[in-house]
Amino acid sequence: MALIRMKNIAIVMLFGLLLLTPAIAQEATQHPAKLKVNKHMLKNFVKSLIIPGWGQWENGNKVRGIVYFSAELAGIYGYQMNNAEAFDLEHEFKVYGDDHWYYGRFSPYNDEDARCGANLKTHEMLTLKDIDGNHILDMNGKFIPLKDHHFYENISKYPEFVCGWDDWDPNGEFSDEDLSPHKIKYVEMRTRSNELYRNGQVAGTLIMVNHLISAFDAALGTDMTSFESSSFAGKLYINPLNVSRGISMEVTF
Q1: Distance of CA 38 to CAs 26, 30, 43, 139, Å?
Q2: pLDDT tens digits for 143-190?
Q3: How far apart are CA 110 and CA 98, in angstroms?
Q4: 214 burial via Cβ count (<10 Å: 0-12, 13-18, 19+)
Q5: Less packed terminus of the chain by CB within 10 Å, N or C?
Q6: Are 188 and 196 in contact (CB under 8 A)?
Q7: Which phi-psi region, left, alpha or beta, contains residue 141 (left: φ > 0; alpha: ψ -120 to 50)?
Q8: Dist CA 160 CA 123 (whole Å)
Q9: Measuring CA to CA, how many Å separate 154 from each of 58, 90, 163?
């Protein structure tokens, strides 16, 4: 349900921006850009860069202002909703993994070479050690795995760790598929959490795009007589899965 909501939000935001893009492009074509920036134009650019739609509202383009501001609210909602749900689910699947995956089943004799998945051994299972390099043992005398990001990824992805799940049966239904009912549920939870984080990244990138487009639209809509006949070229690259480095722009006058 959350994924459907996120897709709907993204579609609405993109649709609104696409409706406005032709008008921006037409203005830029009619008045090719060697730009004389006046204070009013710069002020509206900064206003919409801070709050999308603010500069349009000041220009009297209230419908545009509402569209940009609505897109901002939708993006913020999508970002917060998806990241909050992803965080909660991440905590949930980690607790589930801690409850159902046990190092003592994976390596009963505290011996890496004697572990049940030793025939594969493509990834390490790091264990806790004290400052002298000695292994820290649990109440059953077994090694304690270092439960970092790699631990939760290993028990989800790689078949050599399947025997650590408390319901895995080498002679059972899933013995040839490196799965167990508990692992299947864990993988579903972890996959869903990752999907929600990616949706949040997409929403964050759309927020940044909305700020940029709104700012330039506000500036262009201020006073088109401020352009002289000349030429310009521009490039805009957007990677919706990277919020911090997902947008780059180059304009040459």
Answers
A1: 21, 19, 9, 73
A2: 999 999 999 999 999 988 998 999 988 888 777 778 899 999 999 999
A3: 18
A4: buried
A5: N
A6: no
A7: left
A8: 8
A9: 54, 15, 12
